[in-house]
UniProtKB/TrEMBL annotation:
Family that this chain belongs to: Belongs to the GSP F family.
Annotated localization: Cell inner membrane
Residue spans crossing the bilayer: 171-194, 225-244, 378-399
Keywords: Calcium, Cell inner membrane, Cell membrane, Membrane, Metal-binding, Protein transport, Transmembrane, Transmembrane helix, Transport
An annotated Gene Ontology molecular function: metal ion binding
Coiled coil region boundaries: none
Free-text function comment from the UniProt entry: Component of the type II secretion system inner membrane complex required for the energy-dependent secretion of extracellular factors such as proteases and toxins from the periplasm.
Origin species: Halioglobus maricola
InterPro entries associated with the record: GspF/PilC, T2SS_GspF, T2SS_GspF/T4SS_PilC_CS, T2SS_GspF_dom, T2SS_GspF_sf
PROSITE patterns, A to Z: T2SP_F
Protein name (record): General secretion pathway protein F
Gene Ontology cellular component list: plasma membrane; type II protein secretion system complex
A Pfam family it matches: T2SSF
């Protein structure tokens, strides 16, 4: 059966929406009428996404948040480990969901499973929700016969990634707000306050101090060209985004970022931690090492690091050890290389990769904390310096007022 979205009028004339399963639109309409509902629209749950134009490919594709994905995965894990068949587990998870989008997605997956396809294959029809790593782990769990524990690992992994992402976002919110407020305050002073205060000096025949003249010129420039500067800045951001859609330009940009002190350390720590964590969970789920390296390389956001991971996979495929391949790439942290070498020697590579990822995430968190601790007082000093310059530019002519008045 197929999942269908519907809109119908109830006995009170109110429009209701939902998702049901059926063999055809006609059968679904019959089900709705038997429930005293008058169908207005019935369509397959994923038809809208399939018919969407290429210029808006991501707007109508079914997507769910990492939190919802972790919750659904946790529910499926619990149901599967309770010896419930996969199609029934999907049905139960869909019934428990309050989101029509999630319900439709799960029912679509269930329909493919009921037709005899594997769960990994059915999830493959929704790559924007279930990425390659997710499907590879599900496929390994199905073939090895321990799908429940694999889904539980996936739920833990998704929750951890969401937690890490939220920490990074929260760490960046305050600096952005601080910078925004500082820019807004200085702009307001220059555009609205300064012209009123220094206007009394512009008619004097005496030459104004250089600081005051600079302040007046800056204020006039912002008043006349500030709006255009904002438009140019927005246009520049849009143009840069479009230029970076080209893989060659994007790689050059990512290569430049890796040469910037401070930023390169953050990028490498974040990406390699994600790489180690993904590789660990894939191998622990029974995915072969070469396949795990290929999939783990796809989670790297930096194109240069992704190319390095591909070279690492090629060296391992040629018979080299993983730690030697990581060392020769020159990009991966030395601590990670040493821990991988220890894991290969002791036969606990998955465990050492997991520890390496945890260590790198802690180091990244400490680095961000240190940077934020330095950034906050620095912004206060810069803001205070700008305000001091504005005040001095206004006060200097006042101090010299007795010589300026004739």
């Amino acid at each position: 059966m197929t999942a269908y979205r519907y809109r119908a009028l109830n006995q009170e004339g109110k429009l209701v929406k939902g998702v049901v399963e059926g063999d055809s639109e006609r059968q679904v309409r019959g089900q709705l009428r038997s429930k005293s509902l008058r169908p207005v629209e019935v369509a397959e749950a994923n038809r809208q996404a399939a018919n969407t134009g290429s210029w808006r490919p991501t707007l109508f594709k079914p997507r769910i948040s990492p939190g919802d994905l972790a919750m659904v995965t946790r529910q499926l894990s619990t149901l599967v480990q309770s010896n419930l068949p996969i199609d029934e587990a999907l049905q139960a998870a869909a019934e428990q969901s309050r989101s029509a989008r999630i319900k439709g997605l799960l029912l679509q997956v269930r329909s493919r499973v009921a037709e005899g396809y594997t769960l990994a294959y059915a999830m493959g029809e929704f790559p924007q929700v279930f990425n390659e790593m997710y499907r590879a782990m599900v496929n390994a769990g199905e073939h090895a016969g321990f799908l429940g524990p694999v889904l539980e690992q996936l739920a833990d992994y998704t929750e951890q990634r969401q937690y890490t992402g939220q920490k990074l976002k929260m760490a960046m919110i305050y600096p952005f707000i601080l910078v925004g407020v500082a820019v807004a305050v200085v702009t307001a002073l220059m555009v609205f306050v300064v012209p009123e205060l220094v206007g009394i000096f512009t008619h004097s025949s005496r030459e104004l101090p250089a600081l005051t003249r600079g302040l007046i010129a800056s204020s006039d420039f912002l008043r006349e060209w500030g709006g255009w500067m904002l438009l140019v800045l927005v246009a520049l951001v849009v143009v840069v985004q479009r230029l970076l859609r080209n893989e060659g330009r994007k790689r050059a940009w990512h290569s430049l970022l890796l040469r910037v002190p401070g930023i390169s350390r953050l990028i490498i720590a974040l990406d390699t931690a994600r790489f180690a964590s993904t590789l660990s969970i894939l191998m622990a789920s029974g995915v072969p090492l070469l396949e795990s390296l290929r999939i783990a390389g796809q989670v790297l956001t930096n194109r240069v690091l992704r190319e390095d991971s591909q070279k690492v996979a090629e060296m391992v495929a040629e018979g080299g050890s993983l730690h030697r391949a990581l060392r020769e790439s020159g990009r991966f942290p030395p601590m990670m290389v040493h821990m991988v070498a220890s894991g290969e020697a002791s036969g606990e590579l998955e465990t050492m990769l997991e520890r390496s990822a945890s260590n790198q995430e802690r180091e990244l968190e400490m680095t961000l904390g240190t940077m934020m601790a330095l950034f906050e007082p620095l912004m206060v000093v810069v803001m205070g310096g700008l305000v001091l310059m504005i005040v001095l530019a206004i006060l200097l002519p006042i101090f010299d007022l007795n010589t300026m008045v004739k």
